[in-house]
Write a structure and sequence with these properties.
The protein has 499 residues and is mostly helical. Among the domains are: 148 residues, no CATH class; 164 residues, no CATH class. The strands form two sheets. It has a three-stranded mixed beta sheet with strand order 1-2-6, with helices on one face. The longest helix has 46 residues. It is elongated, with a radius of gyration of 28 Å.
Length: 499
């Protein structure tokens, strides 16, 4: 046999063996993924999108259609003309917005005329939204089979609705229209409480709207003329908020989305390129080669990467994503079961350490996985804020009945609370003390899990609000600022307007 022929046969043999080896590795990766899924299913996990799609309630129980119909017709108020709620003017101190005769900002000497006109223009729609939100559920009909390509235009509309309900509450408190103020206040809390959509982005928007409701609740608690029944209704709304369903449901759906996207990318190269952000061209390849050889070469390389991912890396990519997501999901379950975020946060942070730098072959996971650590911190933070909020309401109910705030939180049990609320950050009872001036100090240890004795001093990088209460050493429920503190703040605004 001639030497060139022998060399050719040897090379062919190596190619065949190499292809066989790659095929075997492909099958092993496929088997590893199947084994992981089987193990998760055996533990009770549900990995399909259909398992987590919320059931559409009866029309008479579903607030969603009427709420979105009214919210879509709301007019917009420019951001610079919207009244700030619970405006922090000193560490631990906030301006009571509705109490101000004139409401200055850095751009306007008085925001009240703009806010009042805006609310009155939308008053009929606010009434319709409030009525619809008395229903027990709010479920939007969405096509979850589109996974990460699902469009969610209603989220920005709902966020806007939360803002105008807050503005309406302030305007009504300012005008001493307490009945309308209370209706809008409850509607704002219900709007966010009922948003249990099982999507991470939906839950993050819900938390942002919830922050608005917290600020508005704080403003309302400074109003002196509530009755205990009204405060009880407000407290009940906040205690009925079940963040657990939104937290776990969204984590489960995101995991199901990831598996669905991986399967679609394996079956459809166009989906792979769309998901990974690769550039595409409608021009035929050979026409591209003649027109722009460099771009054609890039397309060829992208195609080879797609083939390589489909044939050898896709199953390991999906398995990596499943493992990573499951670790965070287990961490969330542990935190909710124990009622404390600190232990699970520390354990999960250690467990996900190997996943911090994903291999370059994890192309789909890198493009579709959210920042899970930050997302879970947002859930834990808001759960803590929620507990501070309904505890503060109970404290004001105590003062309404007994003429003063209690010496300790234990005095709230069982008349105003079934038990002393716990700080979700570390699982210990919320910190509280009665100050010499008769006001109270209520706080959480915050993200560092360290009790600084109710120190509201801001730490870290400055934000748009340098006294943001959630940037303090502890998360201290704000107290009303003094007239002098408010006057100093307004003087700064006047200087900035002059500039």
């Amino acid at each position: 046999m001639r030497k060139p022929l022998k060399i050719g046969l040897w090379l062919l043999g190596f190619v065949v063996l190499g292809a066989l080896g790659l095929w075997l590795e492909h099958e092993r990766a496929k088997a590893r993924l199947a084994a992981l899924k089987a193990d998760l299913v055996a533990k009770g996990e549900k990995l399909a999108i259909a398992d987590h799609v919320p059931k559409l309630p009866p029309a008479l129980s579903n607030a969603a259609p009427d709420v979105i119909a009214a919210a879509n017709r709301l007019t917009r108020l420019k951001p610079e003309r919207q009244p700030a709620r619970m405006q922090m003017v000193a560490p631990g101190k906030a301006r009571v917005t509705w109490r101000q005769p004139e409401l200055p900002s850095e751009k306007e000497p008085d925001l009240w005329p703009f806010a009042m006109a805006h609310v009155e223009d939308n008053r009929p729609l606010l009434v319709k939204m409030a009525a619809a939100l008395e229903r027990p559920e709010m479920v939007f009909q969405l096509d979850y089979s589109k996974n990460f390509h699902l469009l969610l235009p209603h989220l920005s509309t709902m966020r806007q609705a939360a803002g105008i309900l807050a503005t309406a509450t302030l305007v009504d408190l300012h005008a001493d229209q307490r009945a309308d103020a209370f209706t809008n206040l409850l509607a704002g809390v219900r709007l966010t409480r009922l948003q249990e959509e099982p999507l991470t982005i939906s839950q993050l928007v819900r938390i942002a709207s919830g922050q608005i409701a917290v600020q508005t609740t704080w403003e309302a608690l400074q109003f002196p003329s509530w009755q205990d029944g009204q405060l009880l209704a407000l407290q009940t709304e906040w205690q009925a908020w079940d963040l657990q369903r939104g937290w776990l449901a969204s984590a489960n759906m995101e995991r199901a989305f990831g598996a669905d996207v991986s399967a679609q990318c394996r079956a459809n190269p166009a989906m792979f390129f769309s998901t990974t952000g690769s550039s595409a061209s409608s021009r035929p390849f050979f026409a591209e080669l003649l027109r722009d050889p460099a771009k054609a070469a890039g397309r060829a390389l992208q195609f080879m990467v797609g083939i390589g991912w489909t044939l050898w890396f896709s199953y390991d990519d999906e398995r990596w994503s499943l493992q990573y997501q499951h670790l965070w999901l287990d961490g969330a379950r542990q935190a909710l079961k124990e009622g404390a975020f600190a232990p699970s946060c520390k354990q999960t942070t250690v467990a996900v350490k190997p996943f911090e730098t994903p291999p370059k072959t994890m192309l789909v996971s890198c493009m579709t996985l959210p920042a899970l650590g930050k997302t879970h911190q947002n859930f834990a933070k808001f759960e803590t804020i929620r507990r501070l909020t309904f505890t503060a309401i109970a404290l004001h109910r105590h003062r309404l009945k007994h003429g003063k705030f209690p010496v300790s939180l234990s005095a709230l049990v069982p008349e105003f609370l079934a038990e002393i609320p716990r700080d979700f950050m570390d699982g210990q009872p919320l910190r509280y003390r009665l100050d010499p001036d008769g006001q109270f100090r209520l706080w959480s240890v915050g993200e560092d899990f360290k009790d600084d004795g109710g120190d509201a001093t801001t730490v870290g990088a400055p934000s748009t609000n340098p006294f943001n209460w959630l940037n303090g050493r502890d998360w201290v429920w704000p107290q009303p600022a003094s007239e002098a503190e408010v006057a100093a703040f307004h003087a700064k605004l006047e200087v900035n307007r002059g500039k």
